[in-house]
Description:
The chain is α+β, with helices and mostly antiparallel strands. It has a domain at about 110-220. The chain contains two helices and eight strands. It has helices at about 15-25, 40-105; strands at about 115-120, 130-135, 140-145, 155-165, 170-175, 185-190, 195-205, 215-220. The protein has an eight-stranded antiparallel beta sheet, with helices on one face.
Amino acid sequence: MTTPGSPDGARHRPGHGQESSRRGEPPSPAVPFRPPVFLPWALAAGFAALTIWLGQALLTTRKEAESQQTEARLNELALRESRNQMEAERIVLDRRLSDATKQLAGANGLANLRITALLPGSDAPASSLAVAVWDPLRQEGVLALEKLPAPPADQDYQLWLVDSSGQNPAKGGVFAPNADGGGRIVFKSERTLSAVSAFVITRERKGGAAKPEGPSLLRSK
């Protein structure tokens, strides 16, 4: 059933007239987007935090670099000081050897002298050193010491002269270093030796022993 007045028998649709009336009205104005009031403050705070973090990171990096440079300089100074000390010790030892050689030998006796170094073993400080100057004609010598610590109160250092057989070393005397671990000791063999193959310093009971009993501190090669 068609509605009178409807062209071509079109059906009446509810609200059709309302849509037509709305189309004739002007569109509502668009509302512009406004950022939240707190957004600039949040951005500023984030930028400030980032700036602080970068500053702290840069400061930490600079401190680490300065610390590494300082450590490298200290290591260089320590190495230089160690080299200077070793050179000074070498000069002092050379002088003592020179004095010992002059003390032992006359004008014509230098060719007969034997000069040998005694190096530390496991029972002696690594810095300890001794040099023996031996005159086989006189059967005597001079022992120059460097950085040999004082023995305990109930013990002494004792020098031994080992012959080519290696058996029954001859006693060379009991001694003690001075306050700085150095010294120059004149020694004699208890018996005549045709040849000395090694010099040995041991730590023995007070007054010395008849044969080596204590630990070997310094020995020549």
